[in-house]
Design goal:
Radius of gyration: 16 Å
Strand content: 25-35%
Number of domains: 1
Distance between the termini: 27 Å
CATH superfamily: Peptide deformylase
Number of helices: 5
Number of strands: 9
Largest sheet: 5 strands, antiparallel
CATH architecture: Alpha-Beta Complex
Structural class: alpha+beta
Order of helices and strands: EHEEHHEEEEEHHE
Helix content: 25-40%
CATH class: Alpha Beta
CATH topology: Peptide Deformylase
């Protein structure tokens, strides 16, 4: 089932998500619904808070990014052909490499994109969809998407990394998103306070 995406301004996007156990009710259905929602909204990552579930779970599929690149462009990224997976209860172990800029967007903040600096590599400990413990280092675009989704579990958004001046310049657009004055081709949930 395709779930609505929570829009900027909703309080769930600013909460630190809680850990889940294998007994979490309906987990496999939730993961299945999240994959369906991710693809229906043309995303490459989706965190549970974005579908109004404040739990430590996100999905990533960067293989889609590489499918649309030519062979010359793929050489710029060490993580080709990408990664597809489920991350449950992730914890960030280390960041490595020089910060590099890439133009990021977010399903919860439609129509706004900004160059964000993130490290080249991230090491995570997490559980997969069967709750098997994993420890892995990710690079390039995959590391970037993972860090973006991990931030959602910490109550952070990519716009938190831009300068105060840039934040001021997009403030009215952010307010419009929070009020539901936005055109997207997927369902969204907006905060009741606006």
């Amino acid at each position: 089932m395709i779930l609505p995406i929570v829009a900027y301004g909703h309080p769930v996007l600013r909460q630190r998500a809680t850990e889940i156990s294998p007994e979490f009710d309906g987990l496999q259905q939730l993961i299945s619904d999240m994959w369906e929602t991710l693809y229906a909204s043309h995303g490459v990552g989706l965190a549970a808070p974005q579908i109004n579930q404040s739990v430590r779970l996100f999905l990533v599929d960067t293989t889609q990014l590489f499918e649309n690149m030519d062979s010359h462009e793929k050489k710029n990224y060490p993580d080709a052909p990408g990664y597809k997976g489920v991350f449950i209860n992730p914890s960030l172990l280390s960041l490595d490499g020089k910060p590099w800029a890439y133009n990021e967007g977010c399903l919860s903040i439609p129509g706004i994109r900004e160059d964000i600096f993130r490290n080249e590599a991230v090491e995570l400990r997490f559980q997969d969809e069967t709750f098997k413990e994993q420890k892995q280092i990710f690079h390039g675009l995959t590391a970037r998407v993972i860090l973006h989704e991990y931030d959602h579990l910490e109550g952070k958004l990519f716009i938190d990394y831009i300068t105060p001046l840039k934040r001021k310049l997009i403030k009215s657009r952010l307010n419009d998103i929070a009020k539901g004055k936005v055109q997207v081709d997927y369902k969204m949930i907006f905060s009741k306070k606006y």
